[in-house]
């Protein structure tokens, strides 16, 4: 979840700023994370999140959050728009995603309503606030703490900016549909390319294959093209939709699930698991996610099944993979390594 293992710094400043402003009543939080704004006195939180991990945390806290991504129409859940909207910009997910967030916030804020917009100066905050102010008609930065900033904007009547178009490319015989903010949306990732090139001779026909942390769905679609019965999972809802679009664009079938690692997989098991696991959460390097991917593979592999993983050379995943079977290095190239481990059976 963003901010892990602490509270996201921009969200913390946002909460403090809204507390000082004595914000009360219904607040639509388009980037709820762990639900910090719900702790503000007098605030009734409308929680919106696209992260499966955050949705799990919110449910445990008793908050019935809406799973949604930039551009989704929230009027089915809340027919009357809240007068106050809050958003933390995810500038680290790229320009298109942050601009999609701004357009979404504008669509969700009624004329005369207020948007509190938080972000990181080093991740494009100034650029995105200018875009928001142009759409809203007024606004200024009202709080600063280190590199974090919060702006307050009041919406005037006017058109909502258009959402950025999806990106895409072709790689390994797959037409990829990359939605804004999804990892490797505009071009194939080097590590993923090394992984798929290494596995070119792998026979997947009739095999049950899991693409763990699927992103745009390139790996899962590649496996489906080779005759596999594929399941793709990702903790990010935008990535889930991108992967579904990629399968559809190629006329391929597969199951794509919004899942915090393997939480949504029920009793499914697999003959092969393929992954390019993330090792960043926001701005920090966090290996916990990749280690949980490896632990999930240990739970989900059939006897004789293999986990194939690509990682940056220095990342120490071999010991964790040893819980499945001895880690084998299949390839080392360009600062990356491809590792495999097979479950005994």
UniProtKB/TrEMBL annotation:
- Which Pfam family would be a valid example here? MTS
Keywords assigned by UniProt, alphabetized: Cytoplasm, Methyltransferase, rRNA processing, Transferase
Query: What's a BP term from Gene Ontology annotated to this protein?
Result: methylation
Give the highest taxon in the source lineage. Answer: Bacteria
GO terms for MF: N-methyltransferase activity; nucleic acid binding; S-adenosylmethionine-dependent methyltransferase activity
Q: Which CDD domains match?
A: AdoMet_MTases
Checking Gene3D superfamilies in the record gives: Vaccinia Virus protein VP39 (3.40.50.150)
Quote the InterPro entries the UniProt record gives.
DNA_methylase_N6_adenine_CS, RsmC/RlmG, SAM-dependent_MTases_sf, Small_mtfrase_dom
Methyltransferase small domain residues: 174-339
The UniProt entry, under PANTHER family, shows:
RIBOSOMAL RNA SMALL SUBUNIT METHYLTRANSFERASE C
- Kindly provide the name given to this protein in its UniProt entry: rRNA (Guanine-N(2)-)-methyltransferase
Question: In which organism is this protein found?
Answer: Deinococcus aerius
Which lineage ranks, top first, belong to the organism behind this chain?
A: Bacteria, Thermotogati, Deinococcota, Deinococci, Deinococcales
């Amino acid at each position: 979840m963003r901010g892990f293992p602490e509270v996201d710094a921009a969200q913390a400043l946002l909460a403090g700023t809204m507390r000082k402003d004595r914000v009360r009543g219904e607040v639509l939080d388009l980037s709820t994370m762990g639900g910090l704004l719900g702790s503000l006195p007098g605030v009734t939180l409308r929680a919106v999140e696209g992260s499966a991990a955050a949705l799990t945390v919110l449910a445990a806290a008793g908050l019935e959050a809406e799973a949604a991504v930039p551009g989704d129409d929230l009027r089915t859940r809340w027919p009357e728009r809240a007068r106050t909207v809050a958003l933390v910009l995810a500038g680290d997910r790229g320009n298109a995603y942050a601009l999609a967030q701004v357009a979404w916030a504008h669509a969700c804020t009624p004329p005369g309503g207020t948007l509190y917009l938080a972000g990181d100066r080093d991740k494009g905050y100034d650029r995105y606030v200018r875009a928001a102010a142009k759409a809203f008609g007024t606004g200024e930065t009202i709080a600063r703490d280190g590199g974090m900033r919060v702006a307050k904007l009041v919406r005037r009547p006017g058109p909502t900016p258009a959402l950025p178009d999806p990106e895409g490319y072709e790689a390994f015989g797959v037409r990829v549909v990359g939605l804004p903010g999804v990892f490797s949306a505009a071009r194939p990732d080097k590590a993923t390319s090394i992984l798929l090139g290494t596995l070119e001779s792998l026979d997947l026909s009739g095999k049950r294959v899991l693409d763990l942390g699927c992103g745009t769905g390139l790996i899962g679609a590649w496996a489906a093209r080779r005759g596999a019965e594929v399941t793709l999972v990702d903790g990010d809802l935008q990535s889930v939709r991108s992967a579904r679009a990629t399968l559809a664009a190629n006329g391929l079938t597969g199951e794509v699930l919004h899942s915090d690692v393997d939480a949504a997989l029920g009793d499914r098991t697999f003959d092969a698991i393929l992954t390019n696991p993330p090792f960043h959460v926001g701005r920090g390097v966090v290996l916990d996610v990749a280690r949980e991917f490896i632990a999930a593979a240990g739970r989900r592999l059939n006897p004789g099944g293999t986990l194939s993983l690509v990682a940056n050379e220095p990342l120490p995943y071999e010991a964790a993979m040893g819980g499945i079977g001895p880690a084998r290095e299949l390839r080392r190239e360009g600062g990356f390594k491809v590792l495999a481990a097979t479950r005994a059976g």
